[in-house]
Fold these 2 entries.
Entry 1:
Amino acid sequence: MDYHKILAEINEEVSHLIGKGKVADYIPELAKVKKDKFAIYLLTLDGKSYETGNSQELFSIQSISKVFMLALMISKIGKRVYKRVDVEPSGDPFNSLVQLEHENGIPRNPFINSGALVITDMMLSHFENPKEEMLRFVRSLAGDDKIFYNEAVAQSELRTGFKNAAMVNLMKSFGNIKNEIEDVLELYCYCCSIEMSCCQLAKAFRVFANHGKGVVDTRQYISKSQFKRITAIMLTCGFYDEAGEFAFQVGLPGKSGVGGGIAAIMPGDYSIVVWSPGLNENGNSLVGMKALELFTTKTGSSIF
Ligand code: GLU
């Protein structure tokens, strides 16, 4: 497969879309990001890499961190995680409160905000220093110590995350939040604020493409079966209320974030990360989705 040529073609074919869409300006610090960015980084399991665009530039991974948070807690308490958060697609926006009240404060899945807030609560209960633990875990997956939180982004979201605050309060009223509300919100915003490049993210997602085997052999503490489940949740819940559309157009498990990144995997074959900050109306990178659709179409690779 001539991946160099395919990435160059994609770059050309999406160029008229770059700059379209809307940046996530509900987090004031993210409103400053320029929309004219585009990058792809592809990492195959035989160790080869291919890239185009600003693939070494750091961006806010936002909800892509929810995959790492889930994996971290699975590594600590295994399937008990799923007692407090379900695994069904929500069909609602990522920050919706609607289902939570009907469903007694049990979030639909760990990849919407309410679900990740419950995972955050678990992190606070299990670690002496969850902020450090999270960074250590992500760095170990990526095999890269130069991964950090962005203070300004975290503080910016903390000041304006009123819906997240409403969710934590509602879940606390149902007994599904054990720690202090302020602590949950703070840790959650920090996890979302992690900055990584397409290259670093592709390295961190390699382990998911390889059933637990990566830079660090996570199979020691996350079983192959648990990896299967995390990947299944990526496919069914990784793209807000557009998970069906992503499976239909692209056909890979993955996770997006409102920073404009999308990380996806072809199990047994590769991890691929795209970044372009302009979002569509569902909060997914507009160019990123198109680029991945072109990639799986041109390469004929998809899990289906
Ligand atoms: N920090 C963002 C929020 O809670 C994450 C949203 C996302 O990337 O889906 O609104």
Entry 2:
Amino acid sequence: MDHLRGKAIIASGFHTTRPGEIDFFQNALIAVGNDGAILSVHRPHEKGYAEEKEKHTGRLVSLPHGSYLLPGFVDLHVHAPQYPQLGSALDVPLEVWLQKYTFPLEARYADAAFARRSYRLLVDDLIANGTTTALYFATIHQEATRILADVCLEAGQRALIGKVVMDNADQCPDYYRDASSDAALRSTGDLIGYIRSHPDNTAGLVKPVVTPRFIPSCTDATLEALGALAKQCDCHVQTHCSESDWEHGYVLERHGVTDTESLDRFGLLGRHTVLAHSNLISAANMDTIRWRGSGIAHCPLSNAYFSSAVFPLKAALKKGLHVGLGTDISGGPSGSLFDNMRSAIFVARLLESGVDPNLGPAERSRHSGTWIDFREAFYLATAGGGVALDLPVGQFSKGYQFDAIVIDTASQRGTIRLWDDLDQGENILQKIIYTASRPNIARVWIGGREVSRSPDFN
Ligand code: GUN
Ligand code: FE
């Protein structure tokens, strides 16, 4: 493994700092500090390039022709315990899926040995798929959630982790529920302490997250106390928001307002909040989310199974909301951000075109201007996720963490096929986004530490 802390890399590749705008750099020199942050980025024609190169003699890593450096991916919504059911249990609606498949599986994490085995497999697979930052829901269990933090620290993955809070006896089964509101709050506080004082976490690679599962699973007293705790501890917050008709309707009935308004009243919407899904949010909800500076985890693949609606992504981006992508393992049957970028593009196109072949083209859709292309999808999976989390990740800019992946477009076992005379500039990135698979991900660095390397890559 080739750590880059205190070294520099000369690489060609892509990044984006604004939705829709791609920066293609060739033979750029990126210097990385001892703390994993980017010290400088120089292009060959820029002043200082030759000096930086000279300065790093003997500490310079170069990528071979056909390799492209991309920022590592940010996954804004992962249910870590659901990995064993990835690619199954997709035959019923959300409210049935939770009770029939998901709560029984999550309850198994009372077993620490099972938790360790499952979490290690997940974290290793996500890293190998290019996910360098993940925002995780764990389970209600204190011990298993600590194990997830340990595993992320061992593997070197940047992670934000929440012990899931579920204390509402009306919606949560006896076998998988916090013992009481007090117990849930104490356990959340204990986990925050454990992660922040972990001896291997002095640089804060792993962060704690206040995690009410969603409004239906929590009592009002607990939601209110969690809002206060998040402020007091200055923690990230994550929850589900207006995901499906059933869930959205449940909150309207119980609280008389939408999820967004209700969460806001409980003090749960802030700059460090990430709302998963948010498919059914209104224009007024978007204004509230914008005002609070909260982020949205767009989960296009999962939404196809559980939401019966397409998230109004373009409207959210136009309003300036902070949006990134979430795989929603295992509501979405893929842990790959590549798959989710493609899904984000597909569903945005379907929203624009409409889907009913029995209607004429003029009647088929009431939407226009909603589609996105690979450029916006790439933004969501990288810089957009970083902005939503308010972390310096997702782009190759001074002061940002060197979280990066190398795409080997020449990998025989991979699925990218470039043609020198056809594929140049941004089209290379387009082909990477549409056709890359795990064998194409040759190397992965997080905070300048190399954490994964394909055996095929020299
Ligand atoms: N809403 C509450 N819990 C869940 C979950 O585990 N997955 C999804 N997709 N939605 C939820
Ligand atoms: Fe989810």
